[in-house]
Amino acid sequence: MVVFLIAVVVFAVIIYLAVLYFQRSYSEAISEEQDKVKKIADDSLEEKLAEISKLNLSGESLTEFETLDKGYHYLKNRELPELSEVLNDLSDSLQHYQFFRVSRELKGAQKKSAGVQQHFVELKQKLSSIQKSTKAHEDALKKLQQKYQSLRTVLLNKNFSFGPSIDKLEDKSAEIEDDFSKYTKYSESGDFVSSEEPLNKLRNDMSALEDAVQEIPPLFKNLNNVFPEQLSELKDGLKKMKDAHLGFNEDLDSKLDKITKECQENQQNLTELDLVAGKELDEQLADEIDHIYEQIEIEYTAAAKLPKDLEEIGKFLDHARKQQNELNIELDRLGQNYTFNNQEEDRSANLDKELADIKQHYEQLTQARQKEEVVVSSFEVKKLDDDHQRLTDIEQEQKQINESISGLWKEEKDAFDAIEDFDTEIHRMKREVEKLNLPGLPDDYLSYFFKVTAEIENLDTEINKMKIDMAEITKNLINTQSDIDVLNNKTEEIKDSSMLAEQLLQYSNRYRNRYPEVEQSYQQALTQFEKEFNFVGALDTISQAVDTVEPGSFKRISEQFEADKKTVLAL
């Protein structure tokens, strides 16, 4: 029984706490929505509506305002009271613990409250927009009027600065005044919505007039003052330069005529207020005039430089021709005795043509100046610069050709000396071999000896011809020198091997009777020496036999042989 009572008490406490929780939670939610309703009611728009109603709105602006006014009063007199009544009813139900009803209807009330708040915010923003738009239109009109008066003052006081554009500018002014009339008609009637289009047109027309007032004076000044003065100056300058027989690479008179026509064309652009085309053509005219000034400056500078360049080329040409004449004489003289291998004669002939071409240009230009013919100085100065560089190159080529032929006589003398040395050398080798009194010589040695001898004889024949080819002779000298060196090595080999072999054959006599193998090697070596003339083979055969019975004997004898050779050479 006690447990049951405790359970009943606990359940009752839970129920009580739940009732308190729901009552407090729903009460706070209802109070929050009631505060929002009160805030909207306290934030009255009546004063703002009254201010706007005094603006004498009409047309679309009035229609929009009336819609906002009705919307606000409907919200104030209908939507807010209904919402307030619903919230009060929910508060009463909460006091009577009708939690399920409150839970069911509270969400709907909150949704309706959110809609009311959104409606109020939109009404407030749109009313503010009407006020701001009205203020903006008033400010814009005031600024535009001030700007227009400023532009009109400029047009009246400085109409001389606008030249042929003034009539169109006046038409623009009249159009702007018409824009003001249309805009004023809408704004004074309070139809600010409909006045937006004429206001934008007024702004655009005013901007166009402002641009024209700023851009036309410098364009007209160029057409009326700057360009005519420059054209007059250029025409006078061209006439003076032509009178001085100075020419140009371009037909500048035609260009001046074209510029004059383009000035007339730009006058028409200003008359029609075509500022885009006017500015573009103005820049083009300035560039074309600058180009003519530049051409005149180029020719004037070149004309002052031409006499000095012409005189310098004349002196340089005389010097180069004198050197060329000397070179041709030397080529002719040496060509009788030598064959040229670097196209010296063809190269010299090309230099003759180059010099003739430069001489022709020099004489033509000199005669033209003497006859006071028209001369394009810049072209001639450039060509004289090219001629100067050509003469510099010609001088360098003359030097290279001269260097290539001037040493031929020395090369010939050196070749003679070399051939004599070769002859002396081969005779020396022949005598040294003959002094050995050998039974004969190897075939390969004799073949090489006769080959080198033939080479020397051939060189002697070539060097003694009426006209010699030093390049070919030099190449053969190199080959023969190499062959002489090889033959000398072969000769030394025969001398050393034959003399050593003879010494060892004599030395082996002491062992022949005691050692049959030495006797056998002796006979073999003797055959190689006297019959086959293979001195190196004989030395190898007998040295091995002697070393077998007396180790180290060959080394000792050969070392002594080398020492004796050095002693003889030293003497």
UniProtKB/TrEMBL annotation:
Domain of life of the native organism: Bacteria
Subcellular location: Cell membrane
Extracellular side: 1-3
Coiled-coil stretches: 127-154, 317-371, 456-490
InterPro entries with a match to the protein in the record: EzrA
Coarse class of the protein's main subcellular location: membrane
UniProt KW Phosphoprotein keyword: no
Membrane topology term: Single-pass membrane protein
Topology, Cytoplasmic side: 23-571
Keywords annotated in UniProt: Cell cycle, Cell division, Cell membrane, Coiled coil, Membrane, Septation, Transmembrane, Transmembrane helix
Family: Belongs to the EzrA family.
Function in brief: Negative regulator of FtsZ ring formation; modulates the frequency and position of FtsZ ring formation. Inhibits FtsZ ring formation at polar sites. Interacts either with FtsZ or with one of its binding partners to promote depolymerization.
HAMAP family listed in its UniProt record: EzrA
Protein name: Septation ring formation regulator EzrA
Gene encoding the protein: ezrA
